[in-house]
Amino acid sequence: MDPILKDWLQAGAWLATAIGVIITIVKFWSEVKAGRLQREQDLRWRQAQAGKALNDEMQTDEFAWAALQMLDSDRRTFKTPAGIEVAVVHDDIAPALDVSRGLDDDKSTFIRDSFDTLFYFMAMLEHYISSGLIRHDDVAYPMEYYVPLLARHRLEVSCYLERYGLWRTRGFLERYDAWHTSRR
Which pLDDT belongs to residue 183? Predict the structure, then answer.
């Protein structure tokens, strides 16, 4: 074989090999990138699902839902676990949560139990957000509606949270501008 032809064939083989290696690297890199993007999308979907599940659980809990309804309604009638019907108006919430008053009637106890449960869910939401299991956006609704309503009782709620060491609940509420800016 002609040495010049042999050199050209050898150079062509090296060039083809180099092109093949480059194509393989580019393909591998794009598949790695696509896999990473897919994993990120899957994680984001699981985060959103977890946030929705927590919201759904909060809204189906008898006591947490009662607390949300108390915030949303001027007057609501509830049945306590003892079967007693109590009518709750907005003006009943603050005294029931005021730890200095020590009210112990059925209505005040029901209000506190309801808000304790709501505060528990808020603490869970804060824990999951701060640990990265969910994003705040995943649970912003309906809380972005209810936090301003709760902020009407900010003084009593803050004292209540302080008294019982509910710092995660406080952290969750502090994520909302309405918690800081509301006026009584």
Answer: 62
Distance, CA of 98 to CA of 113 (rounded, Å): 13
Assess if residue 176 is contained within a domain: yes
Distance of CA 38 to CAs 29, 33, 55, 175, Å? 14, 9, 26, 30
Please give the model's pTM, rounded to 2 decimal places: 0.80
Residue 37 in any domain: the answer is no
Give yes or no for a contact between 50 and 133, defined as CB atoms under 8 angstroms apart.
yes
Counting residues of the chain whose pLDDT is more than 90, the rounded percentage is 59
Instruction: Identify the bridge partners of residue 87 per DSSP, sorted by sequence position.
Output: 77
**136 inside domain:** yes
Q: Is residue 120 a part of any domain in this protein? A: yes
Residue 37: both structure tokens together: 């993007």
Instruction: Measure the CA–CA gap between 106 and 97, rounded to whole angstroms.
Output: 13
* Tally of domains in the chain: 1
Q: Which helix (H) or strand (E) holds 89?
A: strand 85-89
How many other CB atoms are found less than 10 A from the CB of residue 85? 10
- 96-145 residue pLDDT tens: 999 888 778 899 999 999 999 999 999 999 999 999 999 999 998 899 99
Q: Report, as an integer, the average pLDDT of 40-69.
A: 91
Question: 141 is in which domain, residue-wise?
Answer: 49-181
Q: How many residues does the chain have?
A: 184
Residue, of 28 and 128, whose pLDDT is higher:
128
